[in-house]
Amino acid sequence: MDAHVVIVGGGISGLAAAWYLRESAGVRVTVLESSPRIGGKLHAGEVAGVMVDAGAEAMLARRPEGKELAKLVGLGDELMDPGTTSSAVYSRGELRSLPKGQVMGVPSDLTELVRSGVLSPAGVARVPLDQILPATLVRTDVSVAAYIRARMGAEVVERLVEPLLGGVYAGRADMLSLDATMPRVATLARSERSLLAAARQIAGETPKDAGPVFTTLRHGMGSLPAAVARASGAEIRTGVTVRELRRTESGWRLVAGPVPRPEVIEADAVILAVPAAPAARLLRAEVPKAADELARIEYASMAVVTLAYPRDAFPQVPERSGYLVPAVERRPVKAVTFSSVKWPHLGKDFVILRCSIGRIGEEHLLQRTDAELISLATAEMADVMGVRGLPADSRVTRWGGGLPQYNVGHLDRVARIRAAVAVQPGLALCGAAYDGLGVPACIATASKAAARISVGLKA
């Protein structure tokens, strides 16, 4: 009889784990997803007749896992390069180009920093002091803000680093882990006295012919989950909530469905591909140490407001891929992506853009109605871009608790979680809570989880 592997969670991590298990001889895979659809944060839908992503709209092209999986499931011809990657920061009252050579907001070229105008003259003058200040000793994990502020001053943190990190994590630099979110900087911080010198070294490590940083799929990143699900050959069940996970003599027992009509599912092995909070609940009875650590991972909520404007609504059609907004500007919109500029295959009939609203600690913004969020986004476009009139179409997508926060100590926490799970045969974890939020990072965790289960079943 085939071994039965149950994957809890039908986002890209769970589906990728199912795909990686497809060649394991004598293994039957079932994916259980609590929502009505698969895909998690990868989801696309029509706006003004164009398929536009409502969640993640791109993946790193310089990490191989995402592109490779897309090719292996038949979407290789659908991979698209961006039309432009030029972006800006709204700082000190206007849009200003990101300084060339910056490393996640850390400047490596003082001339480019001055030219950008992102910082005030005083803020710029503070940066080169990094080269003469005593070393900032980094022996353990610290917050991004604590280290970079000590080396280059508050303005670099507030107007460059925080908006870039905020675009990824919707978090705060005062809380985010340097080791987890900027690992290359963290490594050099332990040996290099000057952060400016470290940034120059990192910037120089990228080959000039490395190609675009990002890629997407012709019909949106939301088209990837269905393709992976089909190729996996797994049984995919939606609308099934797993409420309990218990060890048995031969494997695991899952209890799913409504309390009055529970469904018991027996499995030889289980992969949890769900966010930290539901993973903690499921592990509470059998792996309490992992559950305790998972419960401490915070999540940020956000909303994506997608707008489609007639091209003549803009005094000048945007040439940049988008812009970021530092929290110190106190604007509700934290980032704007001009999707139809960044991805020209979306068409020329409309200027389609996405406004991101909500950072951690700004949950009050997300309590507003969809109509109010659309008003905030249209007001942003009128104020910053001079847009006239109302959009031809709009959509609001809310991602409640969608982004795990890699706060100080995150890597140690993940190590403790994995150590607790490692002694449990037939159990593995994967997803965005561990080693990275991007699609390639999630796929990498899925590959490792599937390998662990496959090896365990053969033992």
- Biggest sheet details: 7 strands, mixed
**Termini distance?**
16 Å
Portion in beta strands: 15-25%
How many individual β-strands?
Answer: 20
Gyration radius, rounded: 23 Å
Question: Structurally, how many domains make up the residues?
Answer: 3
Q: How are the strands of the largest sheet arranged?
A: 8-7-16-17-18-15-19
Mean pLDDT: 95
Query: How would you sum up the global shape?
Result: globular
Task: Write the CATH fold name of the largest domain.
Answer: FAD/NAD(P)-binding domain
Number of helices: 16
Features:
459 residues; FAD/NAD(P)-binding domain; Polyamine Oxidase, Chain A, domain 2; 20 strands; globular
List the helices and strands and how they pair.
Layout: E1 3-8, H1 12-20, E2 27-33, E3 44-47, E4 50-53, E5 59-60, H2 64-72, E6 79-80, E7 87-91, E8 94-97, H3 110-116, H4 121-126, H5 144-152, H6 154-169, H7 178-181, H8 183-189, H9 195-204, E9 214-217, H10 224-232, E10 235-238, E11 242-247, E12 252-256, E13 263-267, E14 269-272, H11 276-283, H12 288-295, E15 299-310, E16 322-324, E17 333-337, H13 339-342, E18 350-357, H14 370-385, E19 393-404, H15 410-422, E20 427-429, H16 439-458
